[in-house]
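Morning F.,

Quick status update on the modeling queue. The single chain you submitted on Monday has been processed. Sequence for confirmation:
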Amino acid sequence: MHIPDGYLSPQTYVPLFGVSACIWTIALRKIKSELSHKHIPYLAMAAAFSFLIMMFNIPIPGGTTGHAVGAGVIAILLGPWSAVLAVSVVLIIQAIIFGDGGITAVGANCFNMAVVIPFVSYWTFRLVNGKATTGPRFYISAFLAGYAGLSIAAVVTGIEFGIQPLIASGPDGLPLYAPYPLSVAVTAMALEHLALFGILEGAVTMMILKYFMKHEPDAVFGMREVS
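Structure tokens below.
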């Protein structure tokens, strides 16, 4: 889902960078009040986990890649604001050092994978799971959290691609950036993630949450009461 340079116009990546920067500021404040000192090492491990799982990139039509992200399970374990920062740091490092995702697209990639996924996954889990700590409902809610977060983020990415021909065309009418219309871009992104990568993300989310609920249930942020 990493967007490279040259696929988004300044009209898209500049506002998205601004939105991401505002969310990073809020996330820093939230973490200070929500995350206890004993969970700080988990935050570092979460970033390392997300970095590792995102390294398995598979190119897909549209100029991007498909892969699991791990942002959903981080959001449920440590809270969505912690996931915002952990995954954002990973995406910035990947773009600057490894060339995985464009420099100009950092704000867009962070918005798609470090903002959309954590909050969609976290609230999907909370709404579906209720107070279940095991059993079919817990496992289904964990799977759906990962699946929904990644799938919706893929659709958002497809929309970002698809609006480029509408907002950034040359004098001859040809697109200057991503050339595919909404019907093609959204379909390509959605189908790949609904059929494959979303299932992988859901399975990873379910297995990791199962482990934590068995061995360290108090560490699962998503099981706390909402204040």
